Amino acid sequence: MRAAVLHEIGQDKLDVVDDMEATGFGPGKVKLRVRATGLCHSDLSAMSGVLPQPAPFVPGHEGAGEVVDVGDGVTSLQQGDRVLMCWLPACGACPSCKRGQTQLCLAGFMNAGTPNFRRSGGDVFGFAGTGTFAEEVVVAAGCAVPIPDDVPYEIAALIGCGVTTGLGAAINTAKVEAGSSVAVVGCGGVGISTIQGARVQGAAQIVAVDPVASRREAALRFGATEAVPPEEFADAKQRITAGEGFDYVFEVVGRSATARTAYENTRRGGTLCVVGAGAMDDFFQVNMFELFFDEKRILPSMYGGGDVLRSYERAIALWRAGRIDLEGLITHRVQLAGINDALDQMRSGEALRTCIAI
Fold first, then answer.
1. pLDDT digit string (tens) for 178-194?
2. CB 85 within 8 A of CB 162
3. Other C-beta atoms within 10 Å of 356: how many?
4. Which of 143, 204, 303, 322 sits a CA distance of 20 to 30 A from 158?
5. At 239, phi and psi to the nearest 5?
6. What is the dihedral of CA 191, 135, 310, 259, to 10 degrees?
């Protein structure tokens, strides 16, 4: 079968091969035929080494498709079911799951260390235990979540990661209050979804901050009340909040420098929500006096900060009701053979989300 593989961490191009084999099928597993997958910035971060991932590996974790086979003991799925892929399934038994914090379950991360594929040269891993840049993939049954017939595969793929992460940051983690002021730093697919979440929650002002003009223009279409480049963020803070700072600031880049800027533009007693996935050696610093004196809440948001199955259902309901725009997030569509063009579009900021037909 065909798949796109990164041979070594640090390479910036993927190799589209046709001799890949999905492995690991057995009890408790399902084999999926991938129909659509989104390109997420986390895929680039894994390729560059910012996010830890053994290589060689097949990137992609934001996918949807259909079940082609089910292993022994799987009763919740059957051949032909339409599903989206959950890269962080909850085990239901660990302390995090029992506390209701299923997004913190580590069971899914354990899958990342087990090869999902094989070719003549040896084993190949799947990013985040999945690897959706392939025609087929074998995953635990809990990774395959049934979707209604009216949800297109490309929409379901986006719900599998970026949309859920962004909406959840605003709704679950920060719990944006109606009438509040919000700033979103970083307006790719996840940042735009955060903006939509803040709009759904009733925020009065939503300022989008991004260095790329096309992303700022897109943010206005999706609900931002204004959009500024980073160098004008401080001026926006002064104009909109009389210098006090925003009630909520979302950092959706994953870098300490932008997190620090976000912190400085959050009002005293306000909320900084960190959504971006960054590197283990990039440290965010605050001094002990400001931490005490400003009483700003610093809230990391992992995969939308809530039960992902409920979050998927909510995203579909909001999309059906016309409260959020998911089709508009897809700015580019390519076949698997064009994956490297899609990577370049993501790096340049040209694309919000590229949908790859597998």
1. 999 999 999 999 999 99
2. no
3. 26
4. 204
5. -65, -45
6. -30
